[in-house]
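Retro notes (design track)

What went well: tokenization of the new backbones is finally stable.
What didn't: we kept losing track of which sequence belonged to which structure.
Fix going forward: every design gets posted as structure first, then sequence, in one message. First example under the new rule, 263 residues:
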């Protein structure tokens, strides 16, 4: 590890100012950022520790939605009675992230801000049509994820919470890497007030919605409809873990399992 400055603001305005003025990185749970720094993939001169900001914490039901503070850990999301009662698929997703140590430190805000191409939360954000709130604005799910480790966040912009509308049905199924527990492919299926939404993670450089599966499941929300859908290999990842063809095969298989789990 190399030397850097650590700033611990006590309110959101100071945190945003510190990020803007220093050009540094926000530190939430640190499960992605610290690893990247150790590998020299990220070398910020300043870290702005958000852990003291109480306004970024907490989980609550708000009408027909669940609001989750950005500093809520994966374990807190998984174990929240609010989440398990309203969106059990989201609690299940959080419970399957990494190992116990990662779940106790990693945060939902940090995960979606980092936007790892194989992370689980981005699939939930897209499929459930969530709204990301920051210190300056609200961002719709479809506008947030831009590309490989790229989001709509601007300089000094900090995620404060994520609001998930409660779906009629939803489920998440992933085929995990046995080493990292990241998704080789993960599929989140949801019946939302606006229709069926299907989000896929781990298969491209960024989470994406599957138009083929959404069309098929809009006609028939069934495992058979999902399994019979053909997914294009265009743009799918090719690496030592799987070929584009293998990932294209996995996506409808996992979608079918998700539909069955959703009930």
């Amino acid at each position: 590890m190399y030397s850097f400055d650590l700033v611990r603001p006590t309110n959101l305005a100071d945190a945003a100012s510190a990020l803007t003025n220093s050009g540094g990185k926000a530190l939430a749970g640190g499960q992605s950022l610290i690893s990247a720094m150790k590998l020299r993939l990220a070398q910020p001169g300043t870290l702005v520790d958000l852990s003291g900001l109480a306004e970024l914490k907490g989980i609550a039901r708000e009408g027909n939605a669940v609001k989750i503070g950005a500093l809520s850990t994966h374990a807190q999301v998984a174990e929240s009675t609010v989440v398990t009662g309203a969106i059990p698929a989201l609690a299940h997703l959080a419970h399957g992230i990494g190992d116990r140590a990662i779940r106790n430190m990693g945060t939902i805000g940090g995960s979606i801000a980092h936007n790892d191409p194989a992370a689980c939360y981005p699939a939930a954000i897209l499929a459930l049509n969530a709204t990301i709130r920051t210190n300056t604005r609200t961002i719709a799910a479809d506008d947030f994820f831009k590309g490989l480790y790229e989001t709509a966040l601007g300089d000094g912009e900090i995620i404060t919470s994520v609001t998930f509308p409660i779906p009629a049905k939803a489920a998440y199924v992933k085929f995990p890497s046995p080493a990292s527990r990241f998704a080789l492919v993960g599929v989140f299926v949801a019946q939302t007030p606006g229709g069926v939404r299907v989000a896929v993670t781990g298969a491209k450089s960024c989470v994406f919605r599957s138009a083929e599966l959404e069309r098929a499941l809009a006609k028939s929300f069934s495992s058979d409809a999902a399994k019979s859908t053909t997914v294009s290999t265009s743009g799918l990842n090719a690496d030592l873990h799987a070929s584009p063809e293998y990932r294209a095969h996995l996506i409808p298989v996992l979608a079918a399992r998700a539909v069955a789990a959703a009930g």
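Added context from the reviewer: The first strand starts at residue 5 and ends at 7.
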